[in-house]
Amino acid sequence: MDLSELEINQNDPESLISFAKSLEKQGERKKAESYYEKAANIDKSKTTALFHLVNLFINEGRLSSITATYKKILINEPNNIEVLHRLAYFYLLSGKELLREECLKEIIRIDPKNIDAIEKIGSLAYKCGDEEKAYEYFRLILEIDPNNKNALSYLPSKM
Question: Fewer CB within a 10 Å sphere, N or C end of the chain?
Fold first, then answer.
């Protein structure tokens, strides 16, 4: 342990996060990860350290760690639409379409007018060959935004 590690308050999440950031800048990612995790464990109600962990994992291409950390964030922030969108994206990258669909449905449950999520789930239904379900989603988009070009492009013959 070097002098700077001795100087930080090991019980203060903000100090730990700050120190982890400096370690990350120095290229000491493994050490940074441990400090972000320590900060997250001290105050489980705050998700700042977990977001830093996600960014670290993104830089390292660790998809399973990214999704696991987003799930931890959702424990404290179950209605965080941004995190659900990000999690859905990483499920897409991982080829986990059913989990992606669950995230998108959760977004729509939280925000029934979330066009982005409705469009993605409609596209997914279309890709899976369920045209009727896809058309339902695209019709829903047009109820919210009658001029939505993406929805109109899926429904030209059905309108």
Answer: N
Please tell me the total number of residues recorded for the chain in this structure: 159
Q: What is the pLDDT of residues 79-122, one digit of tens each?
A: 999 999 999 999 998 999 999 999 999 999 999 999 999 999 99
Q: Which residue stretches of the chain have pLDDT < 50?
A: 1, 3, 159
CA 41 to mean position of chain CA atoms: 20
CATH C-level class of 96-159: mainly alpha
- Cβ neighbour number for residue 37 with a 10 Å cutoff: 16
92 Cβ contact list (under 8 Å, min separation 6)? 100
Q: Long-range contacts of range 34-41, CB-CB < 8 Å, 24 or more positions apart?
A: 38/10, 39/13, 39/14, 40/13, 40/72
Whole-angstrom Cα Rg for the chain: 20
Fold of the 9-77 domain: 1.25.40
